[in-house]
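note to self — DONT lose this again. spent like an hour looking for the file last time. sequence + predicted structure for the chain T wanted, 497 res
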Amino acid sequence: MKPRTPHRIAFPLVLALAASGCPDNNGSDPPKNRIFFPIAAALQRSAPGADANFLYVVNANFDLRYNGSTVAALDLRKLRGRLGYSNRGARVNLGEPPRPAPVGCVTDPADTSAVLCDEDPPHPPPADNCDLALVCAGGTRKINPYAVEAALATYERGEEPDVQRLYVLVRGGNTMAWFDVDAMTGRLNCGTIDDRGYCSADHATGGDPAQSRPAGTRLPADPSSLSVDPRRGLIVVTHQSFDEGSPRATLFYDPASLVNPPQNTRPYLVNVVGGLAVGLSSLALLPRASEAPSNRSTWLVTSRSSATFTTLQAYPGDAPMGDGRIFLYRASTAPVTGLNNGADSRALALDPREPTRRAYVVSRRPEALLTLDIRNPAAPVVESAIPLPSGSSRLVAVAEGDRTLVYTVSYDSRRIYVVDPSLYGDNPTSAIVAQIASGRGPHAIIHDPLDKVLYVLDFLDAAVEVIDVAPTYTDGTANRMYNRRIATVGAPGRRPQ
């Protein structure tokens, strides 16, 4: 969803920036150790199955106070030490937990020994903003204004070290910024920093038609979501354009996914696809078992203004046959059936327990959580519609024992609703099993299944909240902090309760 209050103020300015293709803003430089209008995030791990080291928080700069957006690194190793959940999701029963203290305040403000975001010396935060001791000043990178979405991909290289890249969609200039990630330190490399503090222009792709293949295409307007297939280096971007003639999906290819990539690889735009449903919103990469044929990568896509589900497929070429073509196309479009409307579907998440069988979608018309049968992804079937309060837009699906819980975020009501879809029956509202109060403008939500926590980005409160989703302690007793906020990182003028 688009956050409302600052969006109402800044949207004309943002349109002007996007249309000009040159987001030149004379505002002040954005802070290096603060969170402001956080809109997207991605977890970084040193290797698959390892604990997450950093949460990269994308700050959108919606009110254009600053002359750029930033990507800031939140040090999760230091955060775990403060909160005591470092044992891979295990919770130890220490009796009645004390009231959580503000996170990040330290006795010695120079104690930055755990901050390893960059080779640059990290700087302690100002004394009046001690919560931000966990945000690494040296690890912050500055990009064009109005960033909107992010994804991190790990490209496995067998016996060679894996390659990690972070991709960030930016509407200011309509580009996709990309960063090389140091797997051990989490440092973000975006080329030579210019004299205004921006990442190198070589680390923004899609804005120069000469760099697309074939040349002549650029990233269309209104990029909104992206998803990466790390097996093939394919990156799909959807666009929320409501113009009937505008392209609505874009495919990038990153040669860094190759086992023996050429030097100085960079992602490049391959093709754009038109003739799709208007207002494309969220997308999810389907597991290989769901793909037909198996040499394609398949995404299921929702729409904010059309009662349809779309499947997009990417053909990755066929090297043994000498076929180097890579392209994206629409595989199918299916109507949303079983609902009175169904013309405004938002976020989409696969069931972690049955990713080839079931998916969940937040709908605005009606306001509901939809359960989809996706065994035939070309024709998803709505199995249930559980009523949700107004303003719900984002979600994550969490496996808990033999059930799946869906956490939906409502920007308007400032709540996180916990839904057990298996309880859908004669009284659908009984499927909402818990409510968690959040800060102002909860937007993006990230699940870490190893630490058993959720990270929720409060857009208006300029903060990241940590929600405990471990139901029990290691001794099997109920966790007193289950489905409760255990920390707030930022300076929202409000503290965990």
